[in-house]
Amino acid sequence: MLSKTPLLEIDNLVVDFETPGGTFNAVRGISLCLEQGGSHAIIGESGSGKSVTASAIMSLIDSPPGHVCGGDIRFQGRSILSMPRAERRRLYGRHIAMVFQDPAAHLNPVYPVGWQIAEVCRIHGRPAGEAKRSAIALMDRVGIGDAARRYHAFPHQFSGGQRQRIMIAMAMALRPELLIADEPTTALDVTVQAQILELIRELQQENGSALLLITHDLGVAADIARTVSVMRRGEFVEEGTIADVFVAPRHSYTQKLLEARTSSRPQVTTADAEVLLEVKDVSIDYGSVRAVSDVSLQLRHNEVLCVVGESGSGKSTIANAILRLREITSGSICYRGADIHKLGRAELDAYHRAVQAVFQDPFGSLNPRMSVFDIICEPWSIQRSVLPKSEWRQRSVELMESVGLTAGDLGKYPSEFSGGQRQRIAIARALALQSEIIVCDEAVSALDMTVQGQIISLLQEIRARMGVALLFITHDLTLVRNFADRVIVMKAGEIVEQGSTEDVFSNPKHGYTKMLLAACPVPDPVVQQERRNAAKVASGGNQGAHALARGA
Amino acid sequence: MARYVLRRALQSLYAVLMLLLIVFAMTRLTGDPTNQYLPLSASPQARADFAALHGFNDPYYVQFIHYVSDLAHGDFGQSLFKQRPAMEVALEAFPITLTLAFFTMSIALVLSIVLGSLAAMRPNGLFDRMISPLTIFTASAPTFWVALVAIFVFAMMLGWVPTSGMGTPVHWILPVCVLVLTPLGVLTQVVRSSMVSSLSAPYAKTALAKGASDARVVFVHALRNSLLPLITIAGVQATGLVNGAVVIETIFGFPGIGKVMIDSIRDRDFSLTIACILLAAVVVYAMNVAIDIMYARLDPRVQIGGEARR
Q1: Closest Cα in chain A to B226
Q2: Cα angle at A547 between A546 and A549, to 5 degrees?
Q3: Least confident of A1-15, A147-161, A234-248, A308-322
Q4: Residue B187: pLDDT band by 50, 70, 90 thresholds?
Q5: Chain A closest CA to B221's CA: distance in Å?
Q6: Superfamily of domain A8-107+177-259
Q7: Which CATH number applies to A276-365+437-519: 3.40.50.970, 2.40.50.1000, 3.40.50.300, 3.20.20.220?
Q8: List of chain B residues whose C-beta atoms are within 8 Å of the C-beta of residue A84
Q9: Of A168, A199, B169, B202, which one has the fewest beta carbons inside 10 Å?
Q10: For residue B144, pLDDT beyond 90
Q11: Mind telling me how many Å the CA of B223 is from chain A's nearest CA?
Q12: B213·A89 Cβ contact <8 A
């Protein structure tokens, strides 16, 4: 075999961040080699240093506080780190391009999208007219319909999936040899994710680009990459082909990552338990838009009911209606047979005691100026009759211990905790009133995979120990499988399918459920390849995929 | 857009009427001008005639009705002191104030964008550390005090510029330089802080990843986003300049609207006071509408008059 220069070489790279608490070693001597046209994934949880690695290649590390303090990055044999800035600028956008996680934030809100795509061409010396023409052609290629007109539209006028298509068009504009994709689909719905991954794969093949994919989602990595590095605390703990690493992981951390999604579910029979909450023919309008139409569901004692749907399906609207954070347009919501909109003052208090919530954003849902003790005691200071003040301390310690935190954490503030720990605090607060129902609105979506697993186990344990019922709202089907007793699938404000978890997963009846199940990538390269082919056939080959893409 | 301007104009009309009511009542509270305009020795008959001529004997509400009905015919009343139509006097003085404000704001805007951007490129760098305390000083130093010190130093001690008056371009230097300090300090701080956040925004990273130069990231990508808060604050500052002209024009003996207004209050020249205030109010409202429209031009997400750009 001919020895030639690899496209990208990372050689013993070290990146440090100076923090008030000392030096944080974000990347600790990783090495990587990517050939022309190859596709490599770096997987790991947040804080593992994978995005820092990508930023280092693009010279995008915020300095200060971060700096590359060791090793080298070579592109086509030339060291990027020791290159003059002007020369580096000629590389970026032209030979190395990047797609970021959050397209809404990474597109400049005040310029038209077409202008932003054409800008890459203009920066690298193309005349303005030609740049505009190729931007329109690119928009058309990535599946933005009516490209000539949409050229002048602004980022906020596109959906999340379309924005990511625009980012991809921007990155692929000059057919770069290397495309870096940093969590390109994390902010997107699962069906949109499948389309975007397909688009990246197609463009990569068309242009012969190499792909460096940064992701926390093993399924995404299995779907698109051929080789993989597993990153943890700034180091690669395992490397190899996707097939080797995912089928026969050697390192315990990789094994843990792969297992995180497949924990077993304790069997609890709830089919004939008492109905706690009954939602009957509820419709909810936002102005002239019907967000939820004629939805009915029942939540039984000690049951886990999962409502699954993509963004805009109305699942969170239902949760808010149950929490009485949103008025309903028609229908009724009954708690133990009594309509919650016709309750008196005292009964309403009782209802609020019975139904508590854990929200998606563990950063936004805890008041940063309140100590954990104040946060957990707040329900008692509102509902005076529940617990005398003298017992607050004792009870809050018990609650903290039941969610896996310590009494010593009570005096701290939310900013001192990680996302997972904050969600534990939110759960402790929800448990404070000994509620019967906890509504979890995307309660684990913002968390890393292993942390997700921990929170789900905690919820399972609490459910078994305290006999609460959980209404679990999520967009993530894979989570639901090992957790829910029953599943409701929502689309565009309507329930399209409901049934026991086994039925829905093994024998989905509605086309949309089948599509959701098919779109969700699995961390097994062979299975994922088969599923992808099956999905292609099902949607009528490439043409169908494009038609679908246009709708994203 | 035309509909939006029209709707805002109608809203302003209502506000101007309310303002008129208040100002009218307040001028009447300052006392009867008769005592001021007629000599002490004037006979009671002469006083009665004077008051009757100008309607000062009527109940306030009758005076107000007369005033409004005159106003509806485009008559802002006569200036007692100058014996000319009040609006004519106000309109003569107003362009001077506007010119002063225009020069001041233009200089403040250009300088603040340059200084703020430079400071934001390296937060806590040498330039930033030099500029930031200065902006705090200029933003907080009281204008009248700075004006007096400036006159003392530059006009009296050094004799570089005249102390007061208006005639040659040289007369404009000191007032503009003094007036520019407050908006310059405030706006530089605004530009700096919004520029710092724009430069660390994700879209700035996207621009760098495209291979854009630092200058392009700063002046194309970040600046346009930073202009939004700047325009809001600049609007407040510009309004303040027009209203604050009272002090600075008095100190520098500048015959702008502020000086005319002060003189008219001292002279109990009711019609002139009201004309000046109405004129200033209309300009302030027009400025606000202009700012809203500019805002919508710069930020496509902002919609005016309920018409989203979709």
Answers
A1: A110
A2: 60
A3: A1-15
A4: very high
A5: 7
A6: P-loop containing nucleotide triphosphate hydrolases (3.40.50.300)
A7: 3.40.50.300
A8: none
A9: B169
A10: no
A11: 10
A12: yes
Say if residue B65 is in the same domain as residue B98.
no
B306 and chain A in contact, CB less than 8 A = no
* pLDDT at position B245 over 80: no
What's the alpha-carbon Rg for chain A, to the nearest Å?
25
Which among B200, B202, B209 has CB closest to A93? B209
B220 lies in some domain: yes
Domain boundaries, chain A: 8-107+177-259, 276-365+437-519
Residue A270 Cα, gap to closest chain B Cα (Å): 48
Other CB atoms within 10 Å distance of the CB of residue A168: 24
Structural domain of B252: 87-298
> Which residues on B lie below 8 Å from A111 (Cβ)?
224
3-state secondary structure of A302: coil
**Cα distance between residue A428 and residue A78, in whole Å:** 54
Least reliable range by pLDDT among A154-163, A300-309, A538-547, B122-131: A538-547
Contacts of A167 in chain B (CB under 8 A): 206
At residue A219 the predicted structure's pLDDT band, cuts being 50, 70 and 90, is: confident
For residue A89, list chain B residues with Cβ-Cβ distance below 8 A.
Answer: 211-213
From the CA of A105, how many Å to the nearest CA of chain B?
A: 6
Average pLDDT over residues A382-393: 84
Q: What is the pLDDT of residue B306?
A: 52
Q: Indicate yes or no: CB of B224 within 8 angstroms of CB of A111.
A: yes
- Give the pLDDT confidence score for residue A268 in this predicted structure: 55
Q: In which element (H, E) is residue B69 found?
A: helix B60-72
Among residues B84, B113, B145, the one where a domain terminates is B84
- B213–A154 CB contact, under 8 Å: no
Same domain, B146 and B161: yes
Between A92, A109, A154, which is nearest B210 by CB? A92
Q: Is the pLDDT of residue B308 over 60?
A: no
Q: Which has the closest alpha carbon to A231: A79, A68, A504, A15?
A: A15
Tokens of A73: 């990055």
User: Per-residue pLDDT averaged across A15-21, rounded?
Assistant: 82
Report how far apart the first and last C-alpha atoms of chain A are (Å, whole number).
44
- Do B36 and B25 sit in the same domain of this protein? yes
Q: Are B257 and B245 in contact (CB under 8 A)?
A: yes
pLDDT at A309 over 60: yes
Residue of B nearest to A120 (CA): B210
Residue B262 touches chain A, beta carbons under 8 Å: no
Contact check, Cβ <8 Å, A93/B211:
yes
CB B116 within 8 A of CB B190: yes
Judgement on whether residues B212 and B160 belong to the same structural domain of the protein: yes
Give the residue from chain A lying closest to B210, CA to CA.
Answer: A93
User: Chain B, 271-300: which have a CB under 8 Å from a chain A CB?
Assistant: 298-300
Same fold, A8-107+177-259 and A276-365+437-519: yes
Pick from A146-155, A184-193, A480-489, A492-501: least confident: A184-193
B206 at the A interface (CB within 8 A)? yes
Asked whether the bond before A266 is cis by omega within 30 degrees of 0, the reply is no
Residue B73 maps to a domain:
yes
The answer, yes or no, to whether residue A97 has pLDDT greater than 90, is yes
Residue B189: pLDDT above 90? yes
Find which of A60, A92, A100, A110 to mutate to test the B interface (most B CBs within 10 Å of its CB): A110
| Final residue in a domain of this structure, among B24, B52, B84 | B84
Interchain contact A123–B (C-beta under 8 A)? yes
Q: pLDDT tens digits, residue range B156-168?
A: 888 888 877 777 8
Cβ-count burial of B135 within 10 angstroms (0-12 exposed, 13-18 middle, 19+ buried)?
A: buried
Residue B128 domain-assigned?
yes
Looking at the fold, whether B13 and B97 belong to one and the same domain comes out as no
DSSP label at A274? Answer: P
Total number of domains constituting chain B: 2
B29 with B168, same domain?
no
pLDDT band at B107 (very low <50, low <70, confident <90, very high): very high
pLDDT recorded at residue A548: 43
Cβ A498 vs Cβ A296: under 8 Å:
no
* Residue B308 within a domain: no
- In this prediction, residues A245-265 reach a mean pLDDT of 75
Residue with tokens 């003996």: B253
CATH number at residue B264: 1.10.3720.10
Q: Are A261 and A447 in contact (CB under 8 A)?
A: no
ipTM above 0.85, yes or no: no
